[in-house]
Amino acid sequence: MRTRAPVVAHRDEALRSTAVLTDAAAGAHRPRSAGSRFPVRWRARYRLTPWWARVLAIWALSRVVTTTLVLILASVQGPNPWTGAKPGYVAFANMWDALWYNIVAVGGYPSELPVTDAGHVGENAWAFMPGYPTVVRLLMLITGLDWGPVAVFVSVAFSLGTALVFYRLMLRVLPSSNAMFSVVLFCVAPLSPLLQFGYAESMYLFFLTVALLLLLERRYALLFPVIAVMALTRPSGLAFALALGVHVIYRWVTRRRNPFSLRDGVLAASVAVFSGLMGLAWPLIAWIGTGSMMAYTDTELAWRSAYIGYTELVPFSAWFQGGVWWLGTPFGIIAVIALILAFALLLFAPPVRRLGVDLRFWLASYGLYLLAVFFPQSSTFRLLMPMFPLLGAMAIPRSVIYRVALIVLGIAGQWGWLLICWGVDGADWTPP
């Protein structure tokens, strides 16, 4: 009896392939009007096109649209601290924090922390992790090219890799058509221009997507190297450790209906501990490199000082401080509480539940991490990018009107984000 399942599977696959070929032949030979012949042929060709080719086509078309928007904005960009007027694409794509990554790539990290006139730690390179600038630096040495074009190339390459792996991730929880539309939403999302700028997000999202896919496939051992690189590219080790910890508990509680061997349990728990250690690795490295135990956290706090001054890092306080700064009391506090409740309800919405428990564990863990340590301002949009699995929930409805509307809104959102957060207009206070 055990030998029949593979035979049946192969037979079903053969029948599906035959059906596709039959549809293609019918579209080519059956008498049809000119208005109906082409849709059938295109549908047949689409079915016969490999999944990776479809993703590649979606990604390429989206990059054409995004690059066009970027070039339009660059053509009207005035002089700014990073470029002259009307900069070329490479220069325009390496503004803002791209300069900090450039500094890390060519000069490394300071052994002494800069101090302001008031005696506080100032902004410095320790806020930017070494994963992305290290990759760019290696390619710079190999090719002999400068930072700008290599940084853009690395980001673009990782964005394609992310799109390919994201489809495989969504295919674990959604039908193929929904998984493919998830890729469309990822490629046209409002912050997708950042995937081809000199920022670490593209590389980070690639390794995060690989890590989530490995988690869903229960390939725990392979998570060790992926987490190591991911946690040194963008701050995420602690959030992923929490997601893994909840995953282990859930699998243990449900082991009667979903077997969870002792070996897998020990391995998964070990990965969770390792992720937590990697989440603490960079603050420890900054301590060793500067001699200051609080080097990393003091550096991060320097960026929010423009809003609320220099303060201590008190977990779960920054969002309420930000709410008061933006909206005053009590509306700022009420708004933050409402956001927390809305996010909690979102995780239990039927479309989000379709994503499965593990992806929701990640969404909840990362949301809790942001609530604990991040101060909300214009960079909040960029910090929300790791929640991109939610695009899978948005891709579930099949209405053509709905899907076209999402694509249009995504592209419009790109233009809005570029205007608000990327383009520089005088004394700009909305960093991306």
TrEMBL record:
Pathway: Glycolipid biosynthesis; glycosylphosphatidylinositol-anchor biosynthesis. It comes from the Bacteria. It is a multi-pass membrane protein. Keywords: Endoplasmic reticulum, Glycosyltransferase, GPI-anchor biosynthesis, Membrane, Transferase, Transmembrane, Transmembrane helix. The chain crosses the membrane at residues 51-74, 147-167, 179-200, 220-253, 265-288, 324-349, 361-380, 400-424. GO terms for cellular component: mannosyltransferase complex; membrane. GO terms for molecular function: alpha-1,6-mannosyltransferase activity; GPI mannosyltransferase activity. InterPro entries: PIG-V/Gpi18 (IPR007315). It is found in: Endoplasmic reticulum membrane. One of its GO terms (biological process) is GPI anchor biosynthetic process. PANTHER family: GPI MANNOSYLTRANSFERASE 2 (PTHR12468). This is Integral membrane protein. The lineage of its organism: Bacteria, Bacillati, Actinomycetota, Actinomycetes, Micrococcales.
